[in-house]
Amino acid sequence: MKPFTTITVVLLALIAAVQLLRFILGWEVTVNGLIVPLWPSGIAFVITAGLAVMVWREARRGPV
Fold first, then answer.
1. What is the C-alpha to C-alpha distance for residues 15 and 56, in angstroms, rounded to an integer?
2. Measured between alpha carbons, how far is 24 from 21 in angstroms, rounded to an integer?
3. What's the pTM?
4. What residue spans define the domains of the chain?
5. Nearest to 23 by CA among 53, 52, 50, 45
6. Do residues 55 and 9 make contact, with C-beta atoms less than 8 angstroms apart?
7. 9: closest CA among 43, 57, 42, 41?
8. pLDDT tens by residue, 22-53
């Protein structure tokens, strides 16, 4: 796997893990005085984890 691809997969997986932790542990996030609800973290987890898996699988497949 190329270095940029590896960095991308690790970064996306890390973001997904933090979003999942926020969703499970109920960490509160406040932006400009407004509390961000938890449900967007569930969606963000699904999207970032999916992207990480897709990039990883594509890199393992190699050139066509």
1. 15
2. 5
3. 0.86
4. 3-61
5. 45
6. yes
7. 57
8. 999 999 999 999 999 999 999 999 999 999 99
